Amino acid sequence: MKILKEAAKRTEEDRRNLTETVSCMIEEVRSKKDEALRKYNLQFDGCTRETLRISRKEIQKAYNQLTSQEIEDLRTAAANIRAFAKAQRETIRPLTNFSPMPGIFLGHRIIPVESCCCYVPGGNYPLYSTALMLIIPAKTAGVKRVAACSPVMKGTNEINPKTLVAMDIAGADEIYAVGGAQAVAAFSYGTEEIPAVDMIVGPGNRFVTEAKRQCYGQVGIDFVAGPSEVMVLADGSGTPEVVAADLLAQSEHDPNAKGILVTTDETFAKKVMAAVEKELCLLSTAEIAEKSWNTFGEVLLAESEEEMAELANAYAPEHLEINMQNPQEMADNLYNYGSLFIGENTAEVFGDYASGTNHTLPTLRAARYTGGVWVGTFLKTCTYQSMTKEAMKELAPLVARLAEGEGLMGHAEAAKVREKK
């Protein structure tokens, strides 16, 4: 492997300060509840709301601020996401009456969590697409209470109208104007106005991420996510400008985002780098995208397609694109990724918005052990069993011996006492 453009090493942030700051915020929300939320809303966003829950009147006002085309676009994207979520739900089925031996009957039920919070970030951009990606799978899974939250637009008392409409189209049961670590704490422990939930999903800044980490256990989470990333595998048969556009689409998320090109063609790599520089001269978000690309962008020259696959599987990127003449051959050799985009026609941004798959995906190599948010995120597979008297008498001596071998005599007795029935 040859490095044509090397990324800067990510420095460990001041974890101690972050941990302590978020811990104090969580404790303040636990003790002071809504008072703390109002304080942080004012401190961070200039929001003076007394009531945190968004009213139906506010939602209707948001609809009135959007064009008919904008509303239709959100509904079309939602329909694709919902259709795929429903198809996924149909693959997750209960198991009944499995019998490992006569008289023993085992099974499992598929049970949705009772409640969840879908955290939709604000920050640099109104990420209303995330509202669709989180709320729709939760509703499709059958979650009874789906709450959503997002910080208000800076200096106002209102959530971005597109985000609010997206939340409503997706089917949120409750919407709250609150964000940051304080929102995670509120939905984990509950306040006067916000009842606690069973699970919190969605991306956020490092304070949100740290709050999810600290509240995990009190509440379920999807995963702990870091800066966004894309890796493009290219054999040189594609279009340099297309690859450059995909790398910058990811880079513009924030200065810590990462775009990586892995190719077997050095000439193609240099053309892509030139195309990146050219597009940066035209891109309205170039200030962020250029900083991200210059700092964390990476271009690697692989000796073979086999080495490309090895690099991709070792990196386990959030988004993995295959820009090759025979993309399916490469796809068959890949197993660590958040979401896979096969062929030049399949832009990663399509998955971000409207093709139907989810864009809330694992980063920082977490794709080695988990996939992204999907309908199954909100489902529990819970086992059950029953057995006949004859099966109980046959199994009890085995269980008693195994328990005695571990020194758990109470366990052994619980098996033996049944033999006497």
TrEMBL record:
- How many and how are cofactors bound here? Binds 1 zinc ion per subunit.
**Domain of life the protein comes from:** Bacteria
Question: Listed GO molecular functions?
Answer: histidinol dehydrogenase activity; NAD binding; zinc ion binding
- Give yes or no: UniProt keyword Nuclease: no
Which reaction equation describes what this protein catalyses? L-histidinol + 2 NAD(+) + H2O = L-histidine + 2 NADH + 3 H(+)
Give the annotated active site.
318-319
Q: Where does substrate bind?
A: 228, 250, 253, 319, 352, 406, 411
HAMAP family, alphabetically?
A: HisD
This chain belongs to the protein called Histidinol dehydrogenase
Q: Organism, per UniProt? A: Blautia argi
